[in-house]
Amino acid sequence: MMKFIDIHTHRRDTSDAAIIDSPHYQADIPHCSIGIHPCNVTAHWRNLFDEIARHAYKKNVVAIGECGFHFTKTTEPATWQQEAFLAHVELSEATQKPLIIHLVKAQERLIAISKQTRHTQAWIIHGFRGKPEQARQLLSHGFYISYGALFNEESVAATPLDKMFIETDEANTAIEDIYNHISQIKGISTEELCRQMSENARQCKIAFR
Using one digit for the tens of pLDDT, what is the confidence trace for 11-70? Predict the structure, then answer.
């Protein structure tokens, strides 16, 4: 039976091989990530982050995030988003768990931080919809790229299978349908794509129990 790994979702009606994103720890979720979305970063972000850090070592927390940068709608100062992101990076390193990153209009900033921090854990850009040139730049700096229901097909084609993940995020699209679409673009079977996503999760030290 094929395992369709969903690396990032906000939906609870999903398979066991899914990482459900939440800002608060929930013991009843088999696999979850916890973090502060950049649009929710305020002057008091550390109060919530302290709660996140208390739960980050628990076994069902398999990733840190989503966290990152969003510079189109938020009115909060960029310094707060950067301070919060760096705290998530430190937590990712301390727990030895990958980082799920939300990225809007801040690619150069993120790459600069990646170079400065010299992180050892995988950094995964979730819900990537950018152009192939942007994808190649991220890939050249070691990032993983996760694709959801909406994506640029040329970017998917340019992303090596061993640097890719697949997700549903908030879409109502079935994870199986996204796998089928991407497998057609990559010219491989859906079964082969499933095997590679499982291997990528293993490489990133994500344990689906």
Answer: 988 777 999 999 999 999 999 999 999 999 999 999 999 999 999 999 999 999 999 999
- What are the tens digits of pLDDT across the range 164-194? 999 999 999 999 999 999 999 999 999 999 9
In sequence order, the 6+-apart residues with CB closer than 8 A to the CB of 29 are 12, 20, 22, 60
- For 56, 106, 117, 125, 126, the CA distances from 53, given in Å and listed in that order, are 5, 25, 19, 21, 21
Q: Where are the domains of the chain?
A: 19-203
Say if residue 6 is exposed, middle or buried (CB neighbours under 10 Å; 0-12, 13-18, 19+). Answer: buried
How far is residue 5's CA from residue 16's CA, in Å, rounded to a whole number? 9
CATH ID of 19-203, from 3.30.450.20, 3.40.50.720, 3.20.20.140, 3.30.70.1120: 3.20.20.140
H/E segment holding residue 144: strand 144-147
